[in-house]
Amino acid sequence: MLAWNNPKLHTPERRKTWLACEEHREHLSSFLGARGFLKDVVPFADWESSRADGRTEGTGNGGGSGPSAADR
Length: 72
Description:
3 strands, 14% strand, alpha+beta, 31% helix, three-stranded antiparallel β-sheet, flat, disordered C terminus
């Protein structure tokens, strides 16, 4: 799971997520990293566990006051 945000559009605590297979994770990490968007890379099992524990507020499309401009 790649956690990212665009600082020009999102608040610092906001995290968007992309799920990537091993084959594409490196490419997507490089793509996001080159733009300064990549915040974290977390194994999906760990992300799922943290989500079940309620630790992913502000991740993806949940936890905010509505969709960002990028979601529209």
